[in-house]
Each structure stands twice: as C-alpha cells, then as structure tokens.
Write a structure and sequence with these properties.
Radius of gyration: 27 Å
Low-confidence stretches: 1-32
Number of domains: 2
Number of strands: 17
Strand content: over 45%
Strand order of the largest sheet: 1-2-3-4-5-6-7-8
Shape: elongated
Structural class: mainly beta
Mean pLDDT: 84
Distance between the termini: 96 Å
Helix content: 10-25%
Amino acid sequence: MPGLFRSSAIHDVCMRSTLFLLCALALAACGGTTDARDASVGGRWVYRASVGGCDVTGVLRVRQEGSPVSGTLEWPGGPCAPSQGLTTVPADSQVTLSGRVDGESLAFTLHGWGGVLAHTGSVRADSMGGVVSGAPWGTQPGRFEARRYAEGTVLPGRFRAVVGGAVTDTLEGSASANRYELVMRRDDGRVQVTIAVLEEKLRLPSSPGTYRVHDWTVHADSLAAGLVYEDDPTRAFRMRDGTLTISSASGGTLRGTFDVTGYRPEDSAATVRVQGSFDAPLAP
C-alpha cells in the first residue's frame, strides 16, 4: 500500500514535530521565563534597613531572569560600631544578592558583613519592603524598605558629575547642603566638589532659579566653587565661571544641576569643566 505508507509516515513526522514543540514549550515554562504574575524587580533601588540596632543603606542593582533575581548592594554602609560585631565593608566592596520572586512576594538574601541577611517581603510597583533577619551583629529581626528609580536619574542624597579637560573623570557619591554650601563627595571620600558662599552674611540659594558662579578672588560676594582630589595636590581646581541651577527646593531637599569651569591656581592653563546634577538634603 504505497499511498497508505506515505500517509502513515507523514502522520508520524507530524506527531513527532507536535510532541517536540509541546516538550519545548513545557521546558520553556519550567525555565527562566517570567510568570505573568511575577512582579518586575529589575533596576536600581535605594535600600534602607534597620536591624540589630544598625541602619544599613545602599543602592541595590537587581537583575531579574524570570523568577530568580540576583544583584549587588553598592556602597553599603551603616553606623554600627565595631563593638557590635559588624565587619567594616571597604568602599570598593560589594555585597551580593540572590533570591526569587513569586507573584508580588519576594525573598532574597544579602551576602556580606561576614554573614547572610535574609529578607522576605512584598513588591508594589516601584516599592518593596518587609522583614530582614540573620544579621551577624544582632539577633533581633528588623525591617527593610526600598524604592526603585529609573536609570539616569539622580538618587536621593546623591550626585553625578562628569569632569573634562585637564582631568577626565566621572564622579558619583553623596550630596548634602546647608545654608552656606553644597557639598558633593565621591563615595570613597577622596574627591569633593563644593559650591558655597564665602561671607557669613550670604546664604546658599534655596529657591528655584539659575545663579552665577565666579572666581572668589574677583567676586567675594558671589557663589564660589572648587574641585579637589584629596590624594593628589596637583588636581585641585578653583572655579572661575559657571552656573548653579536649582530646579526644585521642597521637602527639605535641593535638586538641580551645575556647570562650572575652573583652573589650577599654580597653572591657570590647566583647566577643567565639571557638569553634574544633585539631589541634596538641606540641613537647617
């Protein structure tokens, strides 16, 4: 029966193809694909936890491949004293993260400080929070919370800047302000950008607007600025021109941008341009 044989062979091939496709789909469903119910947690999160008498802060960078998540906690820090058993984490170290998302529930661990911190909680859009336990410096569980921010945005209490000219660099770190100055320090504490007033009768602007920066040797009654690399005296620059733009001044926070140019006092031909943005808590 040649015709029947050919029909049977075609049927067998189709069945094998169908089974292969079904198996492939089943394997994919069991692999790293994201369940439609699982919350999305990839991205940058500002993380804060209070556990065992210590406040731990940092920036979580989370990668998500389906339900599993991984990542790092950058620039971890906290005010725990050595007597509390906390191992000091150097500024260039990273605490690693591993865990899993199940719907809106989240469980992950932070590996660092000589131990493992276990987190269980929930995710709602760009916010997460819950319980943290297992800190090597304390037996009592605590709470954690985190908020996600889009890439390219300046995080609360942070700054980002690009330096060009005699020095080429990218800076990122903490930012703070008071009535006299805006101070931005790289996370390792070795580089600082400062915009300040030089006379006590003056005040750092705290209203939205654009303000001029001048060389303080010429205009003592205006804003002055500087860039200092503390471990390299040849990289200390005094700004001679530029602007500070405050886009928002509310809720005890100054937000804005700056664009200043400067020179080395010992060599005025060595110039730099510093451009950046900041989100700085404003002290009273």
